[in-house]
């Protein structure tokens, strides 16, 4: 799965730590998602989208190449 979470964070001027605290995960989890090393659970994906007031599809894109 590809994502542009880092772009959304930059647009809102939010640090990894601030975002992690807001969605109740570790900063390392946010970092791993941004680097494509971890695919979030469906509930976490929705929490992130809710935080940025966008749809899950705005942040995450399915890419069969990364499977």
Automatic annotation (TrEMBL):
Keywords: DNA-binding. InterPro entries: Cro/C1-type_HTH, Lambda_DNA-bd_dom_sf. It comes from the Archaea. The keyword Nucleus does not apply. SMART domains: HTH_XRE. SUPFAM superfamilies: lambda repressor-like DNA-binding domains. Pfam families: HTH_3. The keyword DNA-binding applies. Gene3D superfamilies: lambda repressor-like DNA-binding domains (1.10.260.40). PROSITE patterns: HTH_CROC1. GO terms for molecular function: DNA binding. Residues 5-59 form the HTH cro/C1-type domain. PANTHER family: DNA-BIDING PHAGE PROTEIN, TRACRIPTIONAL REGULATORY PROTEIN-RELATED-RELATED. This is Helix-turn-helix domain-containing protein. It comes from Halovenus carboxidivorans. The lineage of its organism: Archaea, Methanobacteriati, Methanobacteriota, Stenosarchaea group, Halobacteria.
